[in-house]
Specification:
The chain is mainly β. The chain is about 5% helix and about 65% strand. It has a 26-stranded antiparallel β-barrel. Strands 8, 9, 10, 11, 12, 13, 14 and 15 form an eight-stranded mixed β-sheet that branches. It is globular and about 95 Å long. The chain starts with a helix and ends in a 7-residue tail after the last strand.
Length: about 950
């Protein structure tokens, strides 16, 4: 291994070459009047690619003054074109696009559009403004040439721009994300604000590649560039406020109110956001990011933020990025709660098995104000500085209520019993005689977090040859927590019970600082050297005072007063880390690309650790190496393949290698393991693509192999008389996994499409069977082999017309688990079959989804069987598109439940969680726009 690493290190040093290639597949043609042969200027060409089920990439262009068009696409897959113009019938063609690595042109020749009978009456002939012009390498779009409804939003205009795609909520151009700018400056708030701005603010839209700061200084293209969409705002629309307000009512007395306001400005833009709801949503909007997520299974929140930016230029730097200072302040509050049911089975050798059922109800109240300030500036023409400072305070209050029970059963005689049945069982009942433990726990805690983070960087540009930079950060944080536990425990085989009162006060303080240096240097025009080294130091001090009582007389106001030395702990940790990274891209011939990477990590740790009777000082120095390589070979226009390999090492946490013993939960005891070793893994992946153009067929084949070496598993010990489990981490024999994939995509004519993604997995892994009634710490556990055969399939058959889209789908997940002990064998199945339907009838839009979800093979009986899943949505826009009324109905037949499962070689678990479903939601949105100043 050492010789291999040395050889790879030498290869990397000799091969630091980076090239950047950006291609696109092109389609061209000419559109004419089918009756007269007259060229049609301004006809629209739209394309749509579906690389995989549920993912649609759209693109558009229009004919020029000669009736000709050319449309580029950088995505791969079956592509459908629609040719249209007011007063003419639509025409369609289907072809195949080969993606960004192919520079090819397909000529459609002459495309004839048939005029409608009312064409001359419906179309007013006027002078046309060209949609697209070129200014050097910049594409300029003229908004006035695009057909938009009155009151249309800026995002509606951007969606119509040729080559612009929206995917996963983000904008892309040539398959690269777009960096939003306004009048040459970064758009304050980015993509999130374009849905609130009216389209009429845009005078021009410019699309171009913005080189990195290094490339603009050296004149050499380092491949690090942004695709920029620059909005040129009309005079009179700047320094004004825009935004929207939204009100929503949801059944069962749920509500949501939301307000956005943004001031457009070249020099001093601002953002304001407010929201309040009890519909389980937490929405966070700042100048740099947006988050919209569930709070928990249920919840309510209030949030507000204000953001401000100031822009200016240093003398002599107008051709580079502008200086800017940002400040943001936000305040969030939420309450979240949920109930989660779970069943767990830990694998035993050929003895009586146990099955545990539990339920957890939790509630959390959280309050968090934050402030952030950022600065980027040129001090002169060759030096930049940047500073980011964040400060936050968080206060939370939590409660947990847990109920649980465990019972035994003979192998091959499993019978599921619910938690309620287990808790209600009484002496004399058949189930009561099989019960091992029952518990009811109540926990409450209060926690405070304080955090200060400062990030800083300096970069110096070295003429035309490269740059040198220093970057780092410092973080100071503190956390304190007070927690009360009240445990009611029943040990039914010992015929005894106890109540335990617990309290602990935990304090944690941490300091982390990191400094890194990067050297970038050009050797000629093609050789680019990048070496990065990062050094990090952290100091963490954690203390916990623990109190436990079994006698209520020692409990004062719910707080125990007897110190528990076995669970009192402290840890003072010092860590020094150094990471050296080298990476490269090599293109020896046009069709072959080689990308090696190598990381060398050195980690030095020192810990002064005390837990119960354990009091130790430990020092550890570890070194890890992470080489990887990626190769891509394009054999022809219709065939390509790639091959990759990566090797990783994971070092166990130092604390997990200590011989501590945690008895906070009397039923589940946790210990460390001084014998833990590093674990490793390596992954090899191969992909092959083949296309048949005339048949509109795309075939993708893939294969991967993953090998685990000394992975860490959990070893359980079990006392059958008390029902108490004890666990510790332990290295286990490594397993492996093979994965084979088949992706098939075929267009059937213009309107129909068949897609299927199929994957077959075969895996082998090892775990330890539970050690039963053996207190010998050197007892050798039995290995348990898990063999898994898995099948995943994603099938879609769709019909896609202009106003109607219908999709039949089937999602299949099946796993066959086999163990050395056949009594644990199982084959869980999940299958969902249904239909999606969308109807566009402006100003209305309707969407319906129906599916039958079927599960079988799960130990939790409620998870098995058929469930009819359903949802519907309808919207109506009016008042010149300023108002939107929508109705959303979720889980119409009230059948939805959130399930999860996990299977390993030593344990399996299944769980269900509550969340909001089976509701009707009515919302109204109003957008307010400023008017341009009159001259």
């Amino acid at each position: 291994m050492g010789n291999f690493i040395k050889k790879l290190f030498v290869v990397l040093l000799l091969a630091l070459v980076q090239t950047a290639v950006c291609n696109a597949d092109s389609f061209k043609g000419k559109i004419v009047n089918a009756e007269t042969g007259e060229i049609l200027v301004g006809a629209t060409i739209r394309s749509e690619i579906n690389p995989q089920p549920g993912w649609s990439i759209q693109n558009s262009s229009e004919t020029d003054s000669t009736g000709c068009f050319i449309l580029d696409t950088s995505s791969e897959g079956r592509i459908m074109f629609t040719f249209s113009m007011i007063g003419y019938k639509n025409s369609r063609k289907v072809d195949y696009a080969y993606g960004p690595e192919v520079k090819d042109t397909t000529d459609f020749g002459v495309i004839k559009l048939q005029p409608t009978a009312l064409m001359l009456k419906e179309v007013e002939v006027t002078a046309k403004v060209p949609r697209i012009t070129m200014s050097g390498d910049t594409i300029v779009f003229n908004p006035e040439a695009f057909k938009l409804k009155e009151g249309a939003r800026l995002d509606e205009l951007i969606k119509k721009l040729p080559g612009v795609e929206r995917r996963d909520g983000k904008l892309y151009w040539n398959n690269k994300p777009i960096r939003m700018m306004m009048n040459g400056k970064d758009l304050f708030g980015g993509d999130q604000i374009i849905g609130q701005l009216p389209a009429e603010v845009a005078n021009k839209l410019k699309l171009y590649d913005r080189k990195s700061e290094l490339a603009r200084h050296t004149g050499n293209d380092d491949g690090d560039e942004d695709q920029v969409l620059d909005i040129q705002v009309k005079p009179g629309f700047l320094d004004k406020w825009y935004g929207d307000v939204k009100a929503q009512y949801q059944t069962k007395k749920r509500y949501m109110f939301e307000g956005n306001a943004r001031k457009l400005s070249d020099h001093d833009p601002q953002m304001l956001y407010l929201q309040a709801n009890n519909a389980n949503r937490y929405i966070d909007k700042t100048m740099s990011s947006t988050m919209n997520s569930n709070i928990d299974g249920d919840g309510k929140s209030q949030y507000g933020s204000y953001n401000y930016q100031h822009n200016w230029h240093t003398k002599g730097t107008s051709q580079y990025s502008n200086n800017r200072f940002d400040i943001s302040a936000n305040l969030g509050h939420y309450d979240g709660w949920n109930t989660i049911g779970k069943s767990t089975e830990t694998f035993f050798p050929n003895k009586e098995h146990t099955f545990a059922v539990s339920e957890n109800y939790h509630y959390k109240h959280n309050f968090k104000p934050q402030m952030e300030a950022r600065l980027f500036a040129y001090t002169d023409s060759v030096n930049t500085i940047s500073v980011t400072a964040k400060a936050s305070y968080e206060k939370s209050r939590k409660t947990n209520e847990d109920k649980g029970a465990s019972y035994g059963y003979e192998p091959n005689k499993f019978e599921y019993h619910s938690l309620n049945a287990a808790l209600a069982a009484k002496p004399g009942d058949a189930l009561y005689e099989r019960l091992i433990t029952r518990n009811r726990n109540y926990q409450s805690s209060e926690q405070q977090n304080r955090n200060l983070y400062v990030e800083y960087a300096w970069e110096h540009f070295i003429g035309k040859s490269g740059s040198f930079s220093l970057k780092g950060y410092t973080q100071i944080s503190g956390n304190d927590e007070d927690t009360h536990n009240n445990r009611d425990l029943e040990y039914l085989r010992e015929k005894r019970s106890e109540t335990v009162w617990q309290f602990y006060s935990r304090d944690n303080k941490e300091l982390t600082t990191k400094l890194g240096a990067t050297f970038e240097h050009w050797l000629g025009k093609k050789v680019y050297v990048n070496i990065t080294d990062n050094v990090k130091y952290s100091r963490t001090n954690t203390t916990r005072d623990f109190f436990t009582d079994n006698n209520k007389q020692n409990v004062v106001d719910g707080t125990p007063t007897t110190l528990d030395p076995n669970n009192t702990m402290s840890n003072l940790m010092h860590t020094w880390t150094n990471q050296l990274t080298l990476k490269s891209t090599i293109t020896p011939v046009k069709a072959l690309m080689i990308m090696p990477k190598f990381s060398w990590n050195v980690n030095h740790e020192k810990s002064d650790y005390r837990y119960g009777q354990l009091d130790t000082t430990a020092v550890r120095t570890s070194q890890t190496y992470e080489p990887s390589i990626f190769l891509k070979w394009k054999m022809s226009r219709v065939r390509n393949m790639d091959l990759s390999f990566a090797y990783n090492t994971t070092v166990p946490e130092l604390v997990s290698t200590f011989g501590y013993r945690n008895t906070v939960d009397p039923l589940y005891i946790y210990t460390g393991n001084p014998m833990l070793r590093n674990s490793h893994s390596h992954t090899t992946t191969y992909n092959y693509h083949r296309m048949w153009l005339r048949k509109q067929i795309v075939l993708g084949l893939s294969a991967s192999y993953n090998k685990d070496i000394n992975p860490i598993a959990t070893l359980y010990s079990y006392d059958s008389s008390t029902g108490v489990y004890e666990s510790k981490p332990m290295n286990v024999k490594g397993g492996d996994m093979w994965t084979f994939g088949l992706n098939y995509d075929q267009g059937i004519g213009v309107y129909f499409r068949l897609m299927n993604k199929f994957a077959l997995e075969t895996a082998k892994s090892y775990g330890f069977l539970t050690i039963v009634d053996n207190n010998d710490p050197n007892a050798v556990p039995e290995l348990n082999l898990q063999k898994r055969l898995g099948i995943n399939e994603n099938f879609e058959f769709s019909y896609e017309a202009e106003k109607v889209q219908l999709t039949l789908f089937n999602r299949l997940e099946w796993n066959r688990y086999r163990y050395d002990n056949a009594s644990y064998n199982t084959s869980p199945l999940y299958n969902s079959v249904g239909i999606d339907a969308t109807l566009h009838l402006s100003p209305f839009e309707l969407y319906i989804r129906l599916a039958d979800d079927f599960r079988s093979g799960y130990a939790t009986s409620a998870m098995n069987g058929h469930k009819l899943m359903s949802m519907a949505y309808v919207s109506y826009s009016f008042c010149n598109n300023k108002c939107l009324l929508s109705l959303h109905v979720d889980d119409i037949f009230n059948k939805d439940i959130m399930y999860d499962s996990d299977y390993s070689a030593y344990q399996r678990s299944e769980s269900s969680a509550n969340y909001i479903h089976h509701y009707a939601n009515l919302s109204f949105t109003y957008r307010f726009d400023a008017k341009a100043k009159k001259k």
